[in-house]
């Protein structure tokens, strides 16, 4: 029987790397989208809100297939780009990062969007009256007040990325030693009949989920 370290080493490090990159994208892109949706109204922004919410209700396999049709080597986007600019994300760790980002995006945006929307307009107006630019108002007023919602969104998105399977299968390909995350490793070990290793990985995944739950409790999300 493999030791827990040997059984989990490669998938664990890959999972940590994927989550780290996906959370960086969540903070930069997800946070920006959350602010935009909290401050803008209209049909275009309603459509954008619908699109970022899709991962909550769409089957992950179907969503992953749609992204594959868009970004794959023979995808719709690739057909319009020169060969040198065509994205190569399928069956790579980059594909796993995109899968984790997409899966966690609505969980990142909704708490952050609500937090930005809860900022009183009077505070922004007072900041403008004092001569602050919109950028200064964002950094000095809106962001500090929304930081709890942003933190909750990041924790939720990270937890979702930790257990992601469907999108990762479609975009990462589940290649052992290359695109096998912790969750996919459990799936592979069960298929191979190596239940001892599957049990170890499942226990490890549960232990990693505990801090996520405690952080959410501390932030008042659950």
Give the proportion of residues in helices: over 70%
CATH fold group: MetI-like fold
Number of strands: 0
State the end-to-end distance. 38 Å
**CATH class category label:** Mainly Alpha
| Count of distinct structural domains | 1
Structural class: mainly alpha
**Separate helix tally:** 10
Report the biggest beta sheet as strand number plus sense, adding barrel if it closes.
Answer: none
CATH fourth-tier homologous superfamily: MetI-like
Low-confidence regions:
none
CATH hierarchy: architecture: Orthogonal Bundle
Query: Roughly how many Å is the radius of gyration?
Result: 20 Å
Strand content: under 5%
Could you state the oligomeric state of the chains shown?
single chain
What would you note in describing this structure?
- With 222 residues, the protein is mainly alpha-helical.
- It has a single domain (4-219), classed as MetI-like fold (Orthogonal Bundle).
- It is 77% helix and 0% strand.
- It has ten helices and no strands.
- Helix 5 (93-117) crosses helix 7 (134-162).
- The radius of gyration is 20 Å and the shape is globular.
- The mean pLDDT is 86.
Give a quick set of tags describing it:
single chain, 222 residues, mainly alpha, MetI-like fold, 10 helices, 0% strand, globular
